[in-house]
């Protein structure tokens, strides 16, 4: 069956430490993973995306890996701050053209 996995389910770290989260999937026609965070039940904040093997992160983040089926996209925050405390989401989409990724 088609599945999307995001790990870890929960992570407890100290301020200033490195943070990594992974998203992988098994849906062959999907090739883009978008990353968001949500603090205090407010609106989602866009953190960047990975299309195939190229990451397009917002400032303060790294996105590496492979968004294709069987690959893993890794979101990295190099230095955690109090503002990093949030729920993090990965979204999987299919894009035909490299110029049509929504933000």
Automatic annotation (TrEMBL):
An example Gene Ontology biological process: immune system process
Organism: Oncorhynchus mykiss (Rainbow trout)
PANTHER family: IMMUNOGLOBULIN V-SET DOMAIN-CONTAINING PROTEIN (PTHR23268:SF102), T-CELL RECEPTOR BETA CHAIN (PTHR23268)
SUPFAM superfamilies reported for this sequence: Immunoglobulin
Signal sequence region: none
Gene3D superfamilies according to UniProt: Immunoglobulins
Keyword set, alphabetical order: Immunity, Signal
Residues of the Immunoglobulin V-set domain: 6-91
Pfam families to which the protein is assigned, alphabetical: V-set
Protein name per Swiss-Prot or TrEMBL: Immunoglobulin V-set domain-containing protein
InterPro entries xref list: Ig-like_dom_sf, Ig-like_fold, Ig_V-set, TCR_beta_variable
GO cellular component: plasma membrane
């Amino acid at each position: 069956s088609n599945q999307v996995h995001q790990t870890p389910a929960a992570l407890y770290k100290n301020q200033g430490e490195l943070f990594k989260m992974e998203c992988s999937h098994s849906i062959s026609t999907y090739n883009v993973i978008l990353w968001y965070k949500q603090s205090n039940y407010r609106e989602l904040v866009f953190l960047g995306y990975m299309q195939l093997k190229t990451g397009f992160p917002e400032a303060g983040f790294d996105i590496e890996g492979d968004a294709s089926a069987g690959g893993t996209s890794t979101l990295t925050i190099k230095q955690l701050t109090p503002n990093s405390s949030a729920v993090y989401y990965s979204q999987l989409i299919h894009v035909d053209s490299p110029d049509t990724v929504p933000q």
